Amino acid sequence: MKKKVVLFFPETHLSRAEDGWCLPPFSLLAIAGPLLQEGYEVVLVDGRLVPDFLERVQGESANAICLGISVLTGNQIRQALELSAAIKERFPDLPVVWGGYHPTLLPDQTIANPLVDVVVRGQGELTFKRLVQALASGASLRGIPGLSFKEPGRIVCNDEAPFTDVNEFPPMPFSLVDLSRHLPDLGFARRTLSYVTSQGCPHHCEFCAESTAYKVRWSGLAPARVAQDLEALLGRCEADGVILVDNNFFVNEERVQGICREILRRGLSFKWAAQGRADRVASLSDETFALLKQSGFTVFHVGAESGSDAQLEQVSKRSSRQTTIDCARAVKAHGLHISFGFIFGFPGETEADIQQNFSLMEEVTDIQGSYDCIYHFYAPSPGSPMLEASVQRGAEDHPLLEDWIGYNTSRGITSWVDAAYIDRIRWRTDFVYAYARPNFMLRQRLAGSPARRLLYYPLHVINRLRYRLKFYAFPLDWWIYRTLRGVW
Ligand code: B12
Ligand code: SF4
Predict the structure, then answer these.
(1) Cα(396)–Cα(477) distance, rounded to whole angstroms?
(2) Which ligand minimizes its atom distance to the CA of 20?
(3) Atom 77 of ligand 1 has which residue's CA nearest to it?
(4) Is residue 267 left, alpha or beta, with left meaning phi > 0 and alpha meaning psi from -120 to 50?
(5) How confident is the model at residue 17 (pLDDT cuts 50, 70, 90)?
(6) What is the pTM of this model?
(7) 429 close to ligand 1 (CB < 6 Angstrom)
(8) HEC per residue, 275-335
(9) pLDDT tens for each residue of 438-486
(10) Ligand 2 in reach of 303 Cβ (< 6 A)
(11) Whether 71 contacts 84, CB under 8 Å
């Protein structure tokens, strides 16, 4: 009987050269765990790291049970389609299975594509194991919840799989990846290991993929398991930091405290960061803040999203401008750092909304003492309640799977987020705010080159003045800077 499964992680929208954010392919590691437990051989190919990925996957596929591909909305679809086409041509009988956020959000559109044989919806650990077992033994796929698949002349969509507690899954087999390729310098730590301790989110912000994908459910690993996994991982690489990429790490305060205590009890030493909501972080107890700090916690990543209460209500964020300010103050008072995420370009955004985003960015910058915000441009998430409203306002519809390749929240995809709009936001934030109130990362980057240092001081002085006087007109220095950029 065949025992091999080939898994593929496609290249993201970041090019190979600039992918400093090359995290391990957690999705594939998660589904590989139960297969290894059952004695299957798993071959994992990462399209970001293996330039001849087509030959590699083809070489491994001859005696495989199936090929599994993990797909996020956007550029990963491009390489996923390219590989699926090449495999279909050479091994027409090898089932091509797509899983991950994109196929989960749009299963019908994904399975309709002739290059996809099976879609795994939602959590993959158990569903994929059952699928592989059925494919290996020639059993029917009809009884496996969470699958959409093709039968001759028809598409079958099985019932949804129940949401499983993540503590029931085995640890991710990190031995399948070379961890040294996944240790980016993220500023708060030089060699940052990444790890994920939960799945889902109990909130339903309307712009976010989470509530459609995981249907407002959340499950987190027990503290002992988190610390045990981290201890094992730190033993395998020389990392000085850990970033937890959970959607919402701080859901359960007791669990957060437990994780801190376990880190301390085991004497683990590293700096760490995690992301969460402003209301949750603002309401953490003094005891939790103290434990976080003692255990090496350094930076909170928090989605402020908008400075306009009207917009926050429109997208069902269930938070407010004041909550973001309270959160910044609480973090500052406890001697920790915070980075806030904003979204520009929500449908119906007014000039007043944009100004409120800017003014909230300034307010939290003044509290923190440096500019530490990031931003995205709203791109209607597949399957989200806001997609239809956006299409009505003129955003493009995406009737085919391949139409989603251009999806990218870093540059926006709606008609109202055009080049001039992006330029305006970039100028105010990445340029004026960054030079007026530079954070540690910017100062470090500029220290690297004498040419940059030379330019930094005049830009800092001009923009500091702009920031103080709130004078945001005539961006002459920005034009000069952009002209010179090509030179150095
Ligand atoms: C890390 C990360 C990235 C990394 C890429 C992944 C990596 N490993 O490097 C980077 C930074 C590049 C990235 C980019 C983007 N991301 Co991102 N990212 C994440 C993040 C933080 C973690 C993903 C993860 O590993 N989760 C843990 C694993 C275990 O869970 P999982 O991926 O859901 O996998 C499970 C199932 O989906 C399923 N499964 C997954 N793959 C497969 C494959 C098979 C064969 C099977 C059977 C099952 C299966 O089984 C797994 C176990 O249950 C998530 C948020 C989160 N916490 O999940 C956002 C998230 C996935 N990203 C999101 C977004 C919006 C983006 C961008 C579109 C943003 C942008 N700039 O435009 C891009 C798209 C990239 C592209 N297509 O080119 C959204 C949703 C994306 C979507 N619609 O697909 C998320 C959910 C954040 C959010 N809450 O909004 N991202
Ligand atoms: S934006 Fe954050 S809090 Fe809201 S649903 Fe998404 S992950 Fe959850």
Answers:
(1) 35
(2) 1
(3) 74
(4) left
(5) low
(6) 0.96
(7) no
(8) EECHHHHHCCCHHHHHHHHHCCEEEEEEEEECCCHHHHHHCCCCCCHHHHHHHHHHHHHCC
(9) 998 888 777 777 877 888 888 999 999 999 999 999 998 888 888 877 6
(10) yes
(11) no
CA 155 to ligand 1 center in whole angstroms: 26
What would the DSSP string read from start to end of 27-73?
HHHHHHHHHHHTT-EEEEEETTT-TTHHHHHHHHHTTEEEEEEE--S
State the total domains in the chain.
2
Among 178, 192, 172, 135, which Cα is nearest to 21's?
192
CA of 362 to the centre of ligand 2 (A): 23
Q: Which residue has the higher pLDDT, 121 or 459?
A: 121
Q: Are residues 327 and 378 in the same domain?
A: yes
Please give the Cα distance from 386 to 400 (Å, whole number). 19
The answer to the question of residue 439 being in a domain is no
Task: Indicate whether 212 and 151 sit together in one domain.
Answer: no
The 8-class DSSP code of residue 317 comes to -
- Same domain, yes or no: 219 and 363: yes
Show the domain range for 223. Answer: 183-417
Q: How far is the CA of 204 from the centre of ligand 2 (A)?
A: 6
Is residue 176, in this structure, part of any structural domain at all? no
Q: What is the pLDDT of residues 400-443, one digit of tens each?
A: 999 999 999 998 899 999 999 999 999 999 999 999 999 988 88
Residue 410 Cα: closest atom of ligand 1: 71
Residue 124 and residue 205 in one domain:
no
| DSSP at 188 | S
Does 409 contact ligand 1 (Cβ within 6 A)?
yes
Choosing from 391, 417, 443, the residue where a domain stops is: 417
pLDDT of residue 484: 77
25 CA to centre of ligand 1 in angstroms:
9
